[in-house]
Amino acid sequence: MANLLLPVARLFGQAIFEASKLNVLFLGVDEKKHPSKLPRTYTLTHSDITAKLTLAISHSINNSQLQGWANRLYRDEVVAEWKKVKSKMSLHVHCHISGGHLLLDLIAELRYFIFCKELPVVLKAFVHGDGDLLNNYPELQKALVWIYFHSNMPEYNKVECWGPLWEATSLDGCRTLTCESMPERPCVNECSCCFPAASMIPWTHYHGTSHGGDDENVALIGRNDVTKYIYNRKRN
After folding, report:
1. Do 17 and 128 form a contact (C-beta atoms < 8 A)?
2. Contact 54/44 with Cβ under 8 angstroms?
3. Is the omega angle on the peptide bond into residue 183 within 30 degrees of 0, that is, cis?
4. Which residues have a Cβ under 8 Å from the Cβ of 110 and sit 6 or more positions away?
5. Contact 76, 94 (CB under 8 A)
6. Are 227 and 199 in contact (CB under 8 A)?
7. What is the mean pLDDT of each run of 10 residues along the chain (236 residues)?
8. Which helix (H) or strand (E) covers residue 119, if one does?
9. Global confidence as pTM
């Protein structure tokens, strides 16, 4: 049983953010550039050796952080990107619950619970690590935060709205707010009100629907329908 819980135990430790344990890497980005004009992503990983978090802030996901057998086994990374859709900024955060190997599948429910508990800490790490950007553009604190849970099990493969960034950092556990039911879709054609044109997150999980086609609870990420996510939303 102890071995079974190993992937869960290393999900960022206690739900307390400690700035001294955060290592921030800026990879080709500029805090003076608004993320509505230049892609901006976050890659957050944890080290068992140093007990520290590493946050890479870059134009695309920092794949070098995601290499190695430990990451493939535990899958405790969190990746995120800023997006502008219909002229509104939002932060889209992705985490892996299950799929890939049996061990993760066996503890999917527990991983979902722990990710929910730890995500406010993750968001605080984003806010602290990218503090200059948020100081230069304080309106980003009002941007909605969307959490994408990736799983091969339908009950955990969903998206939740955690409200504006300033509020999401203080939430305790999973919560779907009623202010928005799902992220607004970007324009189909080229426009100036949506950016970037395609998602910077290279996770391409696909989940079809029981109707054999697109469903109102399925979101399209970017301007294509390669990546789809089932939404945590009740039908009327």
Report:
1. yes
2. yes
3. no
4. 5, 8
5. no
6. yes
7. 41 70 92 89 85 91 82 82 95 90 86 90 95 96 94 90 91 55 84 89 47 36 37 33
8. helix 108-129
9. 0.80
